[in-house]
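Homework help thread (please don't just give me the answer)

Our assignment gives two proteins as sequence + structure token strings and asks us to describe the second one. The first is just a warm-up. Here they are:
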Amino acid sequence: MAKDPKYTAGEIAKLAWLTARMAKRGIASQTVYQGDLERKFERVIERAREREAQEAADKAEAEKAARKAKAKAKNLKTK
């Protein structure tokens, strides 16, 4: 299983809400269908993974741009 991402406050609240709804259905009966809630739960986790991957890519791109700008500034100083 993939590593769990760091969740935002909204994602934590959504996961807690879905967990509570699943527990409530579980109390009602062991045979109650919970697949819809489980899919929603998985989608929240998947979106969090995608968001974290995008943030990492954005950070890497920003670092690359900063290095490039620093090298260009250094090159201009030496001329």
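The one we have to describe:
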Amino acid sequence: MSATDKIKNAAQQASGKAKEVVGSAQGDDEKRADGKADQTSGDLKQRGEHLKDAVKD
């Protein structure tokens, strides 16, 4: 996995977590759900990159 992809995926997860926290604090269910979706997307991308690395080895 390239370091750039790893950083981008981690940033997406962190951004999603922040969005979820803000949404919870504001009582905004849509923002909270968007944050969770961003976290999940970043996590799935990370797992895909790990799979690619495993296949290369």
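TA reply:
I won't write it for you, but here's a hint about the kind of observation we're looking for: Helices lie at 3-26, 29-56.
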